[in-house]
Amino acid sequence: MRQGGLTLVELLVAMAVFGVVVALASDLIFRNQNLSNRQVLAGRVQEDVRLATLRLGDVVAQAAYIYPNGVTLTLPGGRSLTTGGEALAVLLPPGTAYCPLSGGYCGFAYRLEGRGPHAASLDPAPGNSGVVLVEYQVRGVTWNPNTNPAQTARDWSGLALHSEGVVADSIERTGTDLGTLYFAGIESTIDRVLLIPSLQPDLTTSDPRALIGAVRVRVAVRYANGVWASRQAEVYARGIPRSLPPGM
Fold this sequence. Notes:
alpha+beta; 2 helices; 28% strand; 23% helix
């Protein structure tokens, strides 16, 4: 007859079973934690692209002029950008929400850049891509009456840089496009120096004389762990004269 208690073999078997149960439980907890973290990051990345497209949309919707693609602007500090898929520039008239001036237009420029120069002002991003979307703002842009801003208002270097900041972190270059432009549907009475397709059949949005009425912006953000999101917005500029400077 066997005495009470466990034999060594039974104890080893029990310990092995307990070890398997603990391992399975730990794996389940780990997987749940990873899933929870991914859900948090998914919400964060969705919010990042939403806020970025909202900012771009709010500014462009008030624009009196959208620079065509291929136009090189000189920014304060000697920096420059060329409008296209990775850069967008617009002019806002005075008296608008983002341009509270009594005279002179406000210039807004957006560009994809390396993260390094801006890293100190940013929160750590999970596996950031090393690319950010930056906004530059200057105030007091003017040009001669009835001339084309894309030809006569390219140099912003003499203006004070009103603000500079990152609109979105961890940008995915291949999924982001700031240069899908559309022609304005009509020509205003003072837009005589600008061109629209009905007057110039071979006109393109890269012609510096082109009259641009809308832009489609697409922003994509991706973290190194695979969490990503993209968002697109079609934005129409204000239907006001584009070539007449303020006060004229």
